[in-house]
Amino acid sequence: MPLIVTTTNTVEGRPVRDYISIVAGEAILGVNMFKDIAAGFRNIVGGRAGKYEEELRKGRETAILEMVAAAEALGADAVVGVDIDYETVGGQMLMITAAGTAVRLG
User: Which alpha helices (H) appear in 31-79, and where do they start and end?
Assistant: First the structure.
């Protein structure tokens, strides 16, 4: 059974037996100059910045996968209370962090 990942603090019908540890995964993305230029042009003429959206999706998935791997290594059944944060680093990079509590369910 795959590990359950949820933003809620509980899993319906499955009581938490053990709280193991806080787990996290991070992804740092550098957006290259051509994507910056294309996104800047889109901001002037309107529309969505598809390349940025794609990079954000990839970064979020990477951060979640790293968090899940950390939870699995601890023998967890689930990660509850998951929070995803976005921060800029050095003005040129974006850091995406996924963090939650690894638990064993009853």
Answer: 33-45, 50-73
